[in-house]
What does this fold into?
Amino acid sequence: MEYVFRSMGLGKKYGNFTALKDVNMEIPKGSIYGFVGKNGAGKTTLIRCLCGLQRPTEGSYELMGVSCDDRNITRTRRRLGAVVESPAIYKAMSARSNLIQQCLLLGLPDFSCVDELLKLVGLSDTGKKKAGKFSLGMRQRLGLAVALCGDPDFVILDEPANGLDPQGIIEIRELILRLNRERGISFLISSHILDELARMATHYAFIDKGHIVRQMSSEELQKECRKSVRMKVSDTGRLAKILDEKGLDYKILGPDTADVYAQLVFSDIAKDCENAGCTILTMEEHDESLEAFYLSLLGGNENV
Amino acid sequence: MFRVLHADARKLLFHGGLRECLLTVTGYLLGFFLLMKLAAHFMGAELYAYDIHSCYSSFAVFLVTACTLMTTISDFSDGCIRNKLISGAGRSAVFLSAEISGVIQALVLSAVACAESLLLALPLPDGAVPLTAGEIADLWIVNTLASMAIAVFTTMLIMVLGGRKSAFVTGIVFAVGMKIVSMEITDKLYPAQGVCSLSGTKLALYSFYDRFVPYAYLGMRPHHELWVYLAGSCGMILLSVAVGSLIFNRKEIQ
It folds into this structure.
């Protein structure tokens, strides 16, 4: 598989504080990679290292096949677009001027992409209004347009939904999906809106305390988060025996709770339980969201 | 580096910092001219051409410092320096481009101040010690050289300290401090009454500062050979670029 980014034992220390430790992460080409973690988990530090703003203290990484120690890494970054933390915009310039500025910075031969990008992010009618007077959502869109300048192969977005209204979030999501589908652009998206991320990401990485806890594809996540019937019974041991006999997939969560991964006919299972001397207390459909999975994986609900 | 410089030079056209400083120069020169003319009229004195020509150099330190601080700090705080690095510009290119932008600002400020001073001084008498065309040229060359060196040094300070407010404060405090030191040294080396009473190491240090530190060039009529000013300004520029480049290349950008 071809990767746009691979890190091998990447580490970053600030004095005695370890921000990243032994990070091994692979972002497949053409993927939308969701990067999930608490505040201070190390997401932005990794993004900063990837963008060349900071140097790792341990390990190495490859960006589009070019090692971070290679002299060509700076040139390779021209194929990269990023909005790290806040959008990088010249506040005294209009949206159009900002994009022309980025074209000049990238050494593009003409500014033909400018109008298309403005239309793409919904800023074509801003005229001469200075970016400094834009709302947070408009700045976010402009930041995205700046990142998309020069037709990059890989785009990094740190909290792209920040400051956007619901309509804006939908538009940006559809834009990301369209760019990924039509132009094959790979995305690394760090987001706190996990359910929003679940609507676009093809791959995920969960980071905690500077360490990648888990990497998985959306298919794998779907399996982990699959629909189940959560049953509360008097004795899960007896319930397990019944489910084993029926050949159903299940998970015992406690002495009285179990998740059954199958469509159950209530009258059948009720009859079986009664015969086995097991009382059903409650039975409800259960759908584990990405957020719930995240909490179960990282064990905590602070600053999700 | 040229694509970064192209973008940076274009940014100056839009940035309020340079525009505001140009307006300040114009306002200051015009205000100085009108107030002094008025004062001279009521006191029965005369305003001379040299007074106008020396007007800019007395506050150029603060103006150039403020201008470069404003334009470069906003680059940092708006994330534009970060964006340049993400977009594949080399650290040296970003640093050098910022330094050259500082030089451009100093040049523009000096050029505008020179043109306005020449215009305002045109109807004024020469006074007891008239300035020849060569001396006027020398004065403005020294002003420009010193302004360029100060702009490069200030830009280096911000690129090294980052876009924090402390960088702005440090820049201004440094400029004020250097101005006070320059006044003190000038006063000791060229006392208004009597002769210089300095000797030994102090005299050598003060003379070195007077000859080779551009902060001392502004606010005084040129009194050294042109090569001394050139050497002092180039020395400060080269030192600032070398030290700044070394630190910026290793700096962690937030």
Q: What stands out?
A: Residues 2-250 of chain B form one domain. The mean pLDDT of chain B is 87.
